[in-house]
Design a protein that fits this description.
The chain is an alpha+beta fold. It starts with a strand and ends with a strand.
């Protein structure tokens, strides 16, 4: 039986910029060469908030002081990958950025994020974040060629 993955994704905001990760350090990476927010997969027994705080600290060195869950993205890739991403934003944090094993961390002006190589579906939920939607549930279905086949919001 196939098992779905649970993960968090955080868009950290400072001075009109998102902290983005350019995924260039791992060879076998579904996100290779793409720009994404920070986050990762749940460890056994973690709540979404616990996963968020741990992953942000591990990947960035930053400690979130405040954050908001903004929605859930159901990410389906081919026949084998289903991931339920809990999407957060935060503009209150402390600490200094550290080197990340998974990619290069860069503060990118929010309007410029859309010009980077990002997942097509990310453009949808990034607009929801900018529109300050209360909460959304978005389903994104991709082919193995990274083509967005379906996007539906609930």
């Amino acid at each position: 039986m196939k098992q779905a993955q649970l993960s968090t994704l955080c868009h950290i905001i400072k001075d009109g910029k998102y902290l983005m990760m350019h995924r260039v350090k791992k060879q076998k990476d579904i996100n290779k060469d793409k720009w994404i927010g920070v986050g990762g997969k749940f460890e056994y027994g973690e709540s979404p908030d616990e996963c968020l705080l741990r992953e942000v600290k591990e990947e960035t060195g930053l400690t979130l002081l405040d954050y908001k869950c903004r929605g859930i993205v159901t990410f389906i890739y081919g026949e084998d990958i289903v991931e339920y991403m809990h999407v957060y934003t935060s503009d209150r944090f402390e600490g200094e950025l550290t080197e990340c094993e998974e990619g290069e961390l860069v503060w990118v002006p929010i309007p410029e994020v859309y010009d980077l190589p990002i997942w097509e579906g990310d453009k949808i939920f990034l607009r929801y974040l900018e529109e300050d939607r209360e909460f959304f549930s978005l389903k994104l279905v991709y082919s193995l060629d990274d083509e967005l086949l379906e996007a539906s919001v609930h």
